[in-house]
Sequence to fold (468 residues):
Amino acid sequence: MSEEAPEIQINVKGPSELKLQIAITTDKTVLELKQAIAAKSDVEADRQRLIYSGRVLKDDDALSVYKIQSGHTIHMVKGVSRSTGGASGSSGSSTTPQQLPTMQTGQNVHDPLTQLNGHMGFGAMAGLNPFGEMGLNPNDPNMMQTMLNSPQFLQQMSAMMSNPAVVDQIIASNPQLASMGPQVRQAFQDEQFRNMISNPESLQSMLRMASMLRGAGLGPAAPFGAAPPTFPAPGNPTSPSQNAGTTDPATAGSQQPPINPFNMFGAPAPGSPGAAGAAGANPFGNQAGMLEQMLGLPGLGGFGGFGAMPPPPADTRPPEERFQVQLQAS
Amino acid sequence: MAKVPRNFRLLEELEKGEKGIGDGSCSYGLEDGDDILMSNWNGTIIGPGHTVHENRIYSLKITCGPNYPDERPDVQFISRVNLPFVNQTNGTVDPSKLAVLANWGRHLSIENVLVEIRKEMASFNNRKLPQPPEGSTF
Fold:
């Protein structure tokens, strides 16, 4: 075998006077050669384009295909990385608020959701207590309102929702969403929908609505009463929570059990009565019906993960007290 | 002065091509290393910078007939390219529209052809010509 794959010395000439000598056997593939070049230069393998004798070398071919001999020269040209053509790379990363610091989440740093857990994410995924920094008490029932009025927060939400990578991640990481099949993706890709969820104003009114209904005692963590019992509702202590925030003492103290960030989008099964009922009360019409299923307005319960208001446990209080939040707000 | 026979001349060119010329902006080699007639050649041109061709790699086919280098080679683009001297249906280079081929002499080589074509890409008239998507072929 070694007889058929002699080691050869290849000269590699690259951009800006780069000259390398690589010793490699001819049974190696072009890709392996590229990796060898990458190890000796600062050009990643997938950005290299190799040219020898008037031909562009193909990654999968063995070097012997090109009959390269010792002392011959291969030219290397820097191209655009092919991987940037992918869905998550191009459009996603450009809109991602990349400047966000990433914190402790224990998730892959490349995971776009991780950024949302950064403190600049305003704990959009709940759990953390960034609000302390904002001078907000998570137990303050008005915090939700305050947040709704915070342009920063809305901007953050809007940035998050307009990032396709995040949306994809959300779909992929939630089996319920994923099992809803193509409509989810379709709807997420629907421009109207995207506009809606990425528009601060509509987000705001959605969140308002949620908080209103919640305050109105329409059910604790799930403002639209949408979650079927089997659904791991946010705030359900038995739900397997992946939330990074579980470790955050502030959350633990807030009586609101940790919220699984993905449950924010945890939709009830399509067509579940709860969701349908919710649609009735809903100024956004059709689109939003879909939206609710997807954002699941338990989801807004998920937003409840903002740790804002511990849900009214039992409505034994007089209405004045029960609607105190609304009365204050208006 | 004695005339270098075709095959010696092409062997010389082959060797030069394999060693690599210049910065690699033009490269060429035998299509099939076992072709003892050395008729069919591949060439690549890396699009010159600051033009629409920047960072593109154009592949060409060069055919040296039995009377090369007394007769000019046939040149044909494999990669789609929009240039005034390139036939837009099959990629062949019109020798009458490219000086190096129109004024062919035996002192010229495959390398000269590629280098001249590359210069044409960077010329004032051609550098901004709209180009077909990268990677498409004739």
